[in-house]
What does this fold into?
Amino acid sequence: MSEVVKLQLIGLTVVGCGALILLFVRAQFARVIGFVAIVLGLFTLVALSVPQMASLPPVEEKFDIATVKTPTDMATIGQKIFFSKGQCALCHTIGPSESARCPDLKGIGAKLSREFIFESLTQPQAYIYLDYRHEGAPKEYPARMPYINKNPIGLSKNEILSVIAFLQQMSGEPISVNVAELEVPGQAPAVPVKAAQSEPVAVAQAH
Amino acid sequence: MLSGLLWAVGLLSFPALAFGADVAPAAATEYRDIPYVGSRNLVWVVAQLHLLLAGFVLGVPIFAWLCEVVAWKTGEKRYDKLAKEFTKLLTSAYATTALFGGILLFLLVSFYPKLMNYLTDIFFPSFIVYCLLFLVETATLYLYWYGWDAMQDGGKKTFHIFLGFMLNFFAFFIMIVPNSWATFQASPVVLAEGSDIARAWAATWNPTWWPVNIHRLIANVVLGGYICGAYAGIRYLSARNTEERDHYDWMGYVGNFIGVFGLLPLPFAGYWLMREIYQYNQQMGITLMGGFLSWLFILQAMLIGVLFLGSNYYFWLGITYRIPGSELKYRKPMLSMLVILLLCLGVWMTPHSLVASLEEARKMGGTHHPLLGVFGVMSAKMTVSNLMILVTFMSFIMYWRAGKEETAGWAKAAKALMSALLVLAGIAVVVLGVWGYFVPAIVRINYFSTSQVMIVLFVMLTITPLTALLLKSARTTTEMVWGKMPPRAGYALVLNAIMVILLMTLMGYARSSSRVHWHVYGVLRDSSQYAFSPALGYAAAIMALNTFIFCMIVAFIFWVATMSDKAKASHS
It folds into this structure.
């Protein structure tokens, strides 16, 4: 029996007990307790009827260099990171969407060089993409791009390269990231990160 | 022999020196757990109960002091009696809250030593401030409660009112100091260098501190009001004579009145808090509103909707049963308001994206329903929440004015102005809501939603004093009749209190879960086995349990506090 079913049974029992109290008990305080039990039981049952999503801590993608043999392997890992630890899909869409909070990433791997993508992830304020989807002057998107190599997201260099591989593969481009670039943990320094959050130095226009 | 004994004692006292010279020091314990229940669940229950009790002991003095001021200004002794009745609860409620606070502290130190070390390192100056505040608060409470009868006349009464003010003043700081610890976990500001006080101050004044302070302050007024209402409702249901029925009916009216008074501005404080969260960290905001917690806001909408309906229903029952002859006059407006509230609730509860299989999602062109999807977005939700506030405000004004006839020469013009304001505000809120679909999100969030809030606030701040002024010279056509409400009115009051408590538990879970797998967001990671947020159903079961335990504790406090009164009544 799953946890949800068990909780549903408990919820139904609580509601049933509450109903029995209201039907058969005359003492006012007990009746109020019965009423409260019904309300709380119903609340739990409603909460159990919506999608049950737990928020799990991000799974660290293992970079066993021996098993990552091709750029396609990297892209596969990158796809997982894109939708999990990287939290990219929280704001970005792959394909146009009116409610997008950030630039659409469809075909982005073909439009931008890997160096530019790397910089966009690690120095997001260097170039600000503007939203041209509406008439009038272009506006900034509502969501601000975070420093992806810093906490709370904190992707490693290997993970960032894998995401770039995924973006290129998704755009139908040859993957320019090489497996040889992956760092073996403990043998290479971490990605250098500029601590200062500098003002935007340029504004890129994305049509 | 003595030296041998001393040697043995010394050996036992310093085992590491005697036997463990080569043993490496054990790694610091980061977490501890208990079997079956789990440390996280235990801390969750105790922390929630402490927070609810704290809300109660901070809300009740505000409520009691307001009643005392009304009694002092109007000379109506029953308000003073009501204030005293609730202040009586405070001594036992205060002790219970402190007890749960102490248990919580022990549990946190035991189960989460790593986190507590970190927080202590940053906040220890404010720990000292917190202790001092407790001392002055306790002293003020003793003076306020034990001096009640002795300070009833003239200057003494003024001093007593001042003591009540100071009680709330210190209580406010008792609330905001721990708020800084909790908000720091969500939006930390960490200084790498600086004195202890500078680091503590920077961490205290974090981006979400003041929005949470204001939100909790208003929420405590709401909690105090509705718990008073629930207590009155239960006592009304079990009243044995007319005098009791009259008294508790009136008490329910006052409790609901103060609850609604706080409820109306509460969503605006919540909106401000969400804005600050988004500005601090987009990902956290999106996790809350569009990520795995998005369904939580559907539940929140349901609870707030029921609370609005319950509060309005109680107003409408009051108009029907307490003011003879008003039923027919107000039946149509009440029906219209009910329809508007239900429609608004329907829109508010429409999810942003639907639960759909991949195939269904492809057919719909996404997870947005082609028709219902229009209602699932923020523009629609902001609009209906503002409309619900306007409708509840109308109920509030309607009840206030029922049974009275305005005699002022300018009454007609004032009434026309108020009607026009309400209608225009309703239209403006809807227009801005619809327009919001056609502008970029940033324009909607920064200008349209803010304008909607300002319009509704303007209406409330204009019509309330105008009505008060109008009713000052009004003639009472029908005296209010107390003690005639049907039993369902008592249950409506209990329902409202349960909704408020559930909302507090629900939003506590939201606030904690928005940090995802971080003790201190982006700074100190949760590496325990509980570094996940449970699904909504499981969380709701714990929330329901917490609500039930809290209600039982409050009932116990009421029972203990009123025991001597009942004994006195039965002897006389």
